């Protein structure tokens, strides 16, 4: 066992971890941060996605001791002062989830993607989310949500007429 | 349990020295995309006694030295795909790395790991073979350089012995007469493991092909360089019929296996088509 010290969503946490412990186990079982989900534990499904020093990673295949001293961001770290992040808001508005299991991973992947590409096309969003699986298969509304969030983040939504917005919500 | 040790050295020779001391099972950790899924199965006896983490060695550099592109073994697939040096001097490698796994996997997985784990479908290895890349192996007593082609000695073994670490890769920069091609085939467009991949690097002089390195991934125990294609292609202008012949030749050299992604029968056929398509695109 070794002592791990990481910053999660701005707060410093310490935990005793084993040689092969993965970051997801630390977040869920030691720190009780429950948004990253335990899916495949092999890096394929994307449900455990978090940011490590701003970069998208699969926490289930990230060795805990390899992120010693790093800054981790989970879905819990996206909202500010109780206000939902535009991605969270748009997933809600566009029905970007059904069972919700994949949602935290989807939103973290989308966050990392929009940080690099704030004005994406439909195809670019699909490619960015290719590593996140939704077994309810609700992909269309997920892509819609990310595109809308990109617009909101760019401040474009504010300038658009109300009617168009209402029409989109149908 | 008490004897287990996580080492994160900051000096390469020190890292080699730790590995050379041996004693129990040792594993080398870089991005963890191959190693951690293995640990996560929690098989009895599956844990190492020593886990040596390479992240502290800062082997993630990418630079150009004269006519050689030098890439540190711990550069991630994303580092490589995103690097202006790689895009300019070895676009084949940038392309291959940009299609490995999903964005999160590319942020973690490293080119050194891609080669050392000797997966049959390792796209980075397939591209490096086509580029005739060399690799530098560090040990406590110094560095040695060898061809990537000679590194994987058989499907279960690499050249690495206790106390050795892959330090960096050397790739000759592309010249104007060089042409490259890359084809990756799988069941979906994003985030997939190659069912078959083909990397080609050919040289055209006076309208004819003067050298050809055609490599195939996921159709043999390890990615391989075709030994028969050069004789078919060299000295002749590229044509559709020549491309087809080369495809058939590579397919005959292939020794694929059935697995969950595709049958050996299918892979034998698809590799011929991918080689043909790659070469036609270069004609």
Descriptive account of the structure:
The complex is a heterodimer of chains A (170) and B (283). Chain A has 170 residues and is of the alpha+beta class. Chain A is 38% helix and 15% strand. Chain A has helices at 23-30, 86-93, 103-116, 122-128, 139-153, 156-159, 162-169, and strands spanning 2-8, 11-17, 49-52, 55-58, 71-73. Chain A has a 5-stranded mixed β-sheet, sandwiched between helices. In chain A, helix 2 crosses helix 5 (139-153). Residues 162-170 of chain A have low confidence and may be disordered. Chain B starts with a strand and ends with a helix. Chain B has a 5-stranded antiparallel β-sheet. A 4-stranded antiparallel β-sheet of chain B has the order 11-12-13-14, sandwiched between helices. In chain B, strands 1-3-2 form a 3-stranded parallel β-sheet, with helices on one face. In chain B, a hairpin with a 2-residue loop joins strand 6 (134-139) and strand 7. Chain B folds into 3 domains: 5-56, Uridine Diphospho-n-acetylenolpyruvylglucosamine Reductase, domain 2; 57-172, 2-Layer Sandwich (Uridine Diphospho-n-acetylenolpyruvylglucosamine Reductase, domain 3), CATH 3.30.465; 182-282, 2-Layer Sandwich (Enolase-like, domain 1). The relative contact order of chain B is 0.12. At the A-B interface, strand 4, helix 3 and helix 4 of A face helix 2 and helix 6 of B.
